[in-house]
Every structure is written in C-alpha cells, then in structure tokens.
Amino acid sequence: MPKAKGKSRRHKYSYNLNRKRLYRSARRRAAPRIACSHIRQAWDPTKSVAQNLAEMGLAGDPNKAVPITKKKLLGMEVESNGQQQGKQLVRKPYVLNEMEYEASLPEKKSNTLSRDLIDYVRYMIQNHGENYKEMARDEKNYYQDTPKQIKRKINVYKNFYPEEYKDFVASLKQEKMEVQ
C-alpha cells in the first residue's frame, strides 16, 4: 500500500501562527497603553477606542480624518463628495486644548557632551595644543582617531561650551607664562 501524499515531507514550523489563543481574549479587553497623560485621564474604559477618541476630538485613522482629494486628469478640478461624514460632538475639548498648549511650549535644549569626551578633549589640548597629528599618535587616543576626527571633536566641544573653552585656553596660557 502506497504512502499518503505529504507524509514523507518535512514539517516546517510556521512562525506566523499565533499560539497564544488562551490569552487572545484577555488582550482584547485590556485598555490600550496611552502615553499622553491628558488622554489617559479622560479615557473611559467602558467605551471603545473610536468612541473615546471621537469624544476628545482626536482621529483614530488619519486617512479618514483628512481625506486626500482626487483630481481629474482632464479638467484638474477637485472632486469632492457631497457626503460629509457625520461629525461627532466633541465632549472633552479640554484634552485637545491641553495637548495643543503643551505642543506650543518651547523645548529645552538638552544638548550635552559625555564626560569622557570632555576629559579627552581637555587632555589633548592641554598636552598638545593645536597639533592634531601629535594628538593622533598619543597613547590616550584609545579609539585611534585620525587628526581630522580629533579636530572635529574639539570643534564640537568649542561649539557646546564656548565660555568654558575660552577659560580653559586662557588658564593654559597663564600656566605657560608662569613656567617661563
């Protein structure tokens, strides 16, 4: 009696198959993770995501909220549908207002350099001055930076901390004067 087709074939593991069937229903009922505190406070767990977002005046699907108008090829006239989707009443406009206010605030510049890079640049300037080739051959050049890379790092330090750099160079000049 011949073998059935497909029995001799190697069984392949299907990576796309969801084997967590037991937890699927529990995951559906769980509230979504919300990053914005304003939305989190106004969220009603008894309502659906679409209902909650509609009450706050937010869009769940940006493609439906701002549809792309189709242009006719010949007349280049804008085609518009006479049907406007039923606009739902915004019951929680304060959420949208708070988010707009928060977005309008200027951001703090938190650009800083690592302590290691600052120490590295200061060491190189202190021992070698403006000689970048000598800096590249220094034993503390652990990352084997080229002279151009070292120059770039020093320029970054100058741009981030201009006053500190000027004070540092001035103190180095004063030390040289005292030694001579």
Class by alpha and beta content: mainly alpha
Overall number of structural domains = 2
* Count of runs of 4 or more consecutive helical residues: 9
- How many runs of DSSP E, i.e. beta strands? 0
Describe this structure in words.
By secondary structure, the protein is mostly helical. It has 2 domains: 19-64 and 89-104, no CATH class; 115-179. Helix content is 50%, strand content 0%. The protein has 9 helices and no strands. The chain has helices at residues 21-29, 37-42, 49-56, 62-65, 93-104, 115-128, 132-136, 147-160, 162-179. Helix 6 (115-128) crosses helix 8 and helix 8 crosses helix 9 (162-179). The longest helix has 18 residues, at 162-179. It starts with 20 loop residues before the first helix and ends with a helix. The model is unreliable at 76-84 (pLDDT under 50).
SSE blueprint and pairings:
Layout: H1 21-29, H2 37-42, H3 49-56, H4 62-65, H5 93-104, H6 115-128, H7 132-136, H8 147-160, H9 162-179
Helix pairs in contact: 6-8, 8-9
Short description:
It contains 9 helices and no strands.
Give the tags:
2 domains, 9 helices, 180 residues, mainly alpha, 50% helix
